[in-house]
Amino acid sequence: MAVLDVNRDRLVDVSAGDLRLRLAETAAEIEAAQGLRYRVFYEAMAAQPTPEMAAVRRDFDSFDDYCDHLLVFDSQRGDGPEAVIGTYRVMRRSAAAERGQFYSADEYDISNLLTFPGEILELGRSCIDADYRTGTTMQLLWRGIAEYVLAHNIELMFGCASLPGTDPERLAMPLAYLYHHHLAPPALRPWAVPDRYVAMNRIPPDGIVPRRALQMLPPLIKGYLRLGGFVGEGAVIDPEFGTTDVCVVVKTEWVTERYYRHYTREGAT
Which helix (H) or strand (E) holds 48? Predict the structure, then answer.
């Protein structure tokens, strides 16, 4: 496991070898993250860009200006926007109020989350350059999220996570596995909005093969599950991105002992 160094001069600033994670500080750095998102989501995957996105080769929307952007830099590529190789977009309750809603609200009824008494954080737009999809980079991203969570006293994290493809029948095994084994408790459960609701309970419990289901889940969703994550009721088809989305909820007090020791400030001393 890579040794992580923490710089206390910034709210979030963690390094591992040549990689460094911190919050975006300039418009150029945010544009670099949008460019990375475009290359991953639209060029390497199945997302369909708008003409405006295609013209500048950046993935952007009206939420970007209200979010914080966690960025991973590779010092071997430089020390500016050209060095961005990973990103995660995060949004707190106050920013969502200023914007008018959380991003997830277009797909899910998140009223149970909005009435949660503590601070909440929406996670989204996670992507890593294909050459850097290693344990070290993911470790750095999770550590950065932990630093951010601690700095803002976040008690609940949530966000839409995607499975590739838009045919629920082809995804019946992983969707049913999530439904039967990781459904959020009622008090914290998001619900897919009625006009986009796709049933997840597509296979009875005794027909699920957990090993196969886990193999079909993307690494990000499996990472949320290892953190004690749950999913909401119903999946949602996202035709723009060519994905089937689920809403993941993670209560930070439920983070497993393994991650707590590795990713909290106390564990870094």
Answer: none
Model's pTM, two decimal places? 0.90
Whether the Cβ atoms of residue 157 and residue 190 lie closer than 8 Å to each other: no
Picking from 206, 205, 201, 140, the residue whose alpha carbon sits closest to that of residue 172 is 201
Q: Which of 76, 24, 99, 223 is nearest to 35 (CA)?
A: 24
pLDDT tens across 151-171, in order?
Answer: 999 999 999 999 999 999 999
Contacts of 92 (CB under 8 A, 6+ apart): 68, 119, 120, 121, 122, 152, 154
Instruction: State in Å, rounded, how far the first CA of the chain is from the last one.
Output: 16
Domain 5-268 part of CATH 3.40.630.30: yes
Domain range annotation of the chain: 5-268
The torsion of the CA quartet 107, 130, 143, 8, rounded to 10 degrees, works out to -120
